[in-house]
Amino acid sequence: MKKKALIFGITGQDGSYLSELLLKKNYEVHGVKRRSSSINTNRIDHIYQDPYQKKRNFILHYGDVTDSTSVSQIIKKIKPNEIYNLAAQSHVAVSFEVPEYTANADALGALRILEAIKFHNLQKITKFYQAGTSEMFGKVQAIPQNEKTDFYPLSPYGVAKVYAHWITRNYREAYNIFASNGILFNHESPRRGETFVTKKIISAMCRIKFGKQKKLFLGNLYAKRDWGHAKDYCLAMWKILQYKKPDDFIIATGKQYSIKQFINLVAEKLKMQIIWKGKGLNEKGYNNKKEPIIECDKNYFRPLDVNTLLGDSSKAKKLLKWKPKINIKMLIEEMIEFELKNISK
Ligand code: NAP
Ligand code: G4F
Predict the structure, then answer these.
(1) Whose C-alpha lies nearest to ligand 2, atom 3?
(2) In whole angstroms, what is the distance from residue 103 CA to residue 133 CA?
(3) Which residue has the CA at smallest separation from atom 8 of ligand 2?
(4) Digit-coded pLDDT (tens) for 178-192
(5) Ligand 1 mean position to 249 CA, how many Å?
(6) Digit-coded pLDDT (tens) for 202-226
(7) Catalytic positions, please?
């Protein structure tokens, strides 16, 4: 019998890569999508439109993690072997603007799924994966961060994810549910949402290079992130649920770059020269004609920002035999290639 997986957040960056991975592994993949006023399935249309997958292996359901009835009914109907909770209001800056909704979806969403597993007595059938985040480390209490590092979240998003992390552990210990946390550091891809910094930089710099945009406006250029590729990280999610017992794992590359360093790497790949001048809000990146093409805008700064994130994934390396295959230069190359194809279309 085929294994059944249920993905909350299937229309997102990770949902799309995880679907492809699970279908390759011969799972029947169920996904929960929200109703939206415009199409939100761009990242999975290529799977859905494949007649073979559509008929047999890839099934979408309407639902929302803020709606316990839909969560419960879908889980009761499918009785999945694995549930991946990737559903979230995942933008840190936006969480300062919509903190209550972020808590409802990102914190209570995990609780609603765990409750449904318990309520329908699926403890022996269903394993649960919670999409945790390095944002939970916030004001970092150790460098690098590992599974033992204390959390100190600095945003409503980070706080909500800490709740989801602990409720996952609580249901594991109280009700014997196979419930695991991945603590994933930033991961990107051509399918990354347009307003996250890597995608925003690459998309804008490609457009600037071909005269389709004049300037790129950014916030904090000095925050450092540990960036990996979403494809590698989705494999880690699956491995976490195949491990012999439920546990918590850091997934990271162990290398960090500032936003400014990231821009310089993109410029190098695009053969664009950037000369940096000025300080603070007046810092600007100039092209070889001495025109400012990168500027800071105070609207892109957050009330609090996480200045440094660097993960230590030795536990995942040792126990899951997981390690990232795609480094930052390969990631940038793939994202640039994707943008250039879009521009030429
Ligand atoms: P993403 O592209 O923003 O996708 C989020 C998904 O959640 C989308 O499918 C979205 O649906 C769905 N969603 C949002 N609110 C929902 C709700 N109330 N009910 C049901 N679905 C809802 O995020 P991602 O980058 O793939 O990340 C996946 C998960 O990993 C998220 O939980 C994120 O917080 C976490 N995470 C991400 C990273 C990273 O660097 N990417 C790192 C650590 C943890 P729509 O398409 O309709 O908006
Ligand atoms: O790309 P970002 O928005 O990602 P952030 O805040 O690190 O969050 C992402 O990674 C988390 C894992 O640590 C996930 F849990 C979360 O769901 C999301 O996927 O911003 C990265 C850094 C920040 O320090 C931000 O202040 O880039 C800085 N930044 C500077 N200018 C900007 C901008 N970020 C955005 N989004 N837009 C800017 O213009």
Answers:
(1) 196
(2) 15
(3) 92
(4) 999 999 999 999 999
(5) 19
(6) 999 999 999 999 999 999 999 999 9
(7) 133, 135, 157
